[in-house]
Amino acid sequence: MLSSQKFNSGNKLLYVQALRGLAAMMVLFFHCSLNSKAYFNMRPLLASVWEYGWLGVEFFFVLSGFIITYIHLKDLESRKGVAQFLRKRFIRIYPIYWVVATIMLIYYLFIKKENQGVTVRLSGMGDFIYLVKCYSLFPTSPLRKNFIDIAWTLSYEVWFYLLFAFCILLGYKRTSYFFIIWGFLIVFKHYTHIGDFSPFLNFILNPMILYFLAGCFIGYLSKKGKASLSLRQFVILIIIASMSVFSYAALSGSVLEQNRWDINYYYLLIVLFGITLWMAVSIDRQSWLTAPSKKLLLIGDASYSLYLIHPAVIMFCYKMAAYLTSRFAIDVSSMTVNLIFIGTMLMATLAGLLLHLIVEKPLLSLLNKNKTFSWRLPWIGKPL
Asked: What does the mean pLDDT of the chain come to?
């Protein structure tokens, strides 16, 4: 709702941060809904809505490309700061991931032994290499996936960060050509099916990367001050976004369930996500609305911790609920399933917030204390 009581976010993109929190909750709703079906063969209230929560993952990719470009556009233009960029990305991704991965590794080694058909063990060099791949977020074989369910998305994040570091060395102009060629190759491969036999090509030319590239474009426009909209333009974009949503809903009923990975949906979602992000930046810049909820902003801050820990919490909650309903002969009615669904959502959200506040935030603060480097890279002459 428009309000005369405006806020001043300064350089902080509060509505973008709020979208980050919403995307995290979408993924959480999605996985909770799936587990309700898996454990009790019943779906919670509004399950047909929660089933589209996986769109939060796609939006995270767009958001990642936006944030990286928005923050590091100067690095692209100056062709400096590649080591500092890699250091920041490493600290952001790996330490808290290793904490969660180690907890889950202990669980799978000593309690469950297996995750969705993937055996987790330490009995030879092959197992050691597998664990190194899991901990480094190197893409694993489809026959033996990472024991952290959501790690495949982080593998794409790391790949994109490495390529963005390479782009810093290339410079801004060459990067724009590189991104155009990269996007063309992704689309070309999809329609021609050249290289479908190659896991490497399937990874580096996955249509998911189009989301990153779209986010980079919005980040560039925003950083250059081209994301400010008049109220009339804002309304027009809302209409276009609404049409995209209705088109998506109309198509998804007959096609999406059969082929979620159809590239035509990528095009449609890129338009929808791009408009959503663009409008959020414009709201932040022009302060049309009151500041978003502090609770939602906190979830946005904790989104990575929440994303990492929620599958484990959901699994624990549903296993415990299945055990208790069986042990005490509790009738599993629709109300029971909804109560379990709500309780699990609250527990997973609380776990993500606690992980962020108690572990992730202090860890980032500690690792970011020394922000300068004295060592040199062989291709860069000055200390970083």
From this structure: 83
Range with the poorest average pLDDT among 132-141, 143-152, 209-218: 143-152
In a domain, 2, yes or no: no
* Angstrom distance (rounded) from CA 62 to CA 56: 10
Number of H helices, E strands in the chain: 15, 2
**Is it the case that residue 199 has pLDDT exceeding 80?**
yes
Task: State the residue for tokens 């109560």.
Answer: 339
Residue 47, in any domain of the structure:
yes
Q: CB pairs under 8 A, 24+ apart, for 368-375?
A: 368/88, 368/91, 371/84, 373/83, 373/84, 373/87, 375/83
**pLDDT score, position 372:** 46
pLDDT band, very low/low/confident/very high, at 242 (cuts 50, 70, 90): low
pLDDT confidence of residue 324:
94
Confidence check: pLDDT of 123 > 50: yes
- 19: which residues sit within 8 A by CB, 6+ positions away? 59, 63, 276, 277, 280, 300
**Phi/psi of residue 285, nearest 5 degrees:** -70, -40
Q: Is residue 213 part of a domain?
A: yes
Question: Structural domain of residue 68, as residue ranges?
Answer: 14-367
Q: Are 224 and 69 in contact (CB under 8 A)?
A: no
- The answer to whether residue 281 sits within a structural domain is yes
Residue 365 has pLDDT above 70, yes or no: yes
Contact 342, 29 (CB under 8 A): no
Instruction: Report the domain count for the chain.
Output: 1
- Angstrom distance (rounded) from CA 304 to CA 352: 8
pLDDT at position 30 is 92
Q: Which residue has the tokens 């047909």?
A: 48
